[in-house]
Amino acid sequence: MTQNTPKLLNRRSFLVSTAAAIGTPALSQNVNTTQMEQDVTGAVRRNISSFRSLTWQPYFSNLRNGAVLVDIDSRALHFWSADGRTYRLYPSSVPLSEDLTRRGRTSVIRKVVGPSWSPTANMLKRNPDWPRFVPPGPDNPLGTHALYLGWKYYRIHGTHDTRKIGRKSSNGCIGLYNEHIAELFSLTKVGTQVLLI
What we know:
Elements: H1 5-28, H2 35-50, E1 67-71, E2 76-80, E3 87-91, E4 94-95, E5 104-113, H3 121-126, E6 145-149, E7 155-159, E8 168-170, E9 174-177, H4 178-187, E10 193-196
Parallel strand pairs: 1-10, 4-8, 7-9
Antiparallel strand pairs: 1-2, 2-3, 5-6, 5-10, 6-7
């Protein structure tokens, strides 16, 4: 029994040291990172899997006038052109809470370059220090372009605050980077169908 003891200890030592060596790269990745960086990395990993291209057929019966699909859960906006040749996928901001979120079918009813903005009465109740009117420009929360939807107060628009993209950060609208809304603006027309899911 004493003759087998060194072999048993050597085997155990080998297994323990191998397991430790395998785990070291994973542990060392977090050595010089803050908790916030670790949380962000985890969130990015979770979001990547849901940010994927889709086909239009499950959501629209046709592509007449083109189609925009906004997936609130994956925080992504999809666009298909009327001829089906152009497809775009953009990261977006979405409403802060479910009670601010509108889902269903509508369409683009107006397109504006350099939109002005006025908060709704409910927004002013929640944020009484907000201005009553913001003209076009770098302080405007609608960014450089806006697509007005058939639902009152709801828009797909740009933002100068790029930190909002990919987050629950709006009061109901869908936000895009300014360069993305400019491209989407050029691809859509009045009458483009929109579905928020």
